[in-house]
Amino acid sequence: MSPNAASVASHRSRAARRGLARVEVTVRKEDAPLVRGLAAALSDPARRAEARDVLRERLGLGAAAGLKALLLAAPLEGVELTRDRGPGRAIDL
Prior knowledge:
Blueprint: H1 3-17, H2 32-43, H3 48-59, H4 67-73
C-alpha cells in the first residue's frame, strides 16, 4: 500500500470511529452549492436536528423507526384500544 493510500485509509478509519461516512453524489452544477450547504447544515451540531426534521418532512423520508416509534406517532384519536377479555370462541379440535 502506498503511503498516500495508507493515510487515506487511516483517515477514513478514524472518521468511521467517530460515526462519519463519506458520501459522493453527482448533481447538476447549479445544485452543487445547495448540496454543500445541506452537508454543512447536517455537520453543524447547532443546525443538525432542524435540518434533519425539515428534510424528513419535506421529502417524506420518515426516520427509520421501530414498531414502538411507529405506534407512538400514529394518529389514534377516536380509536378504541380496549378489547373484550372474555374466554374467546369455542374451537372444535
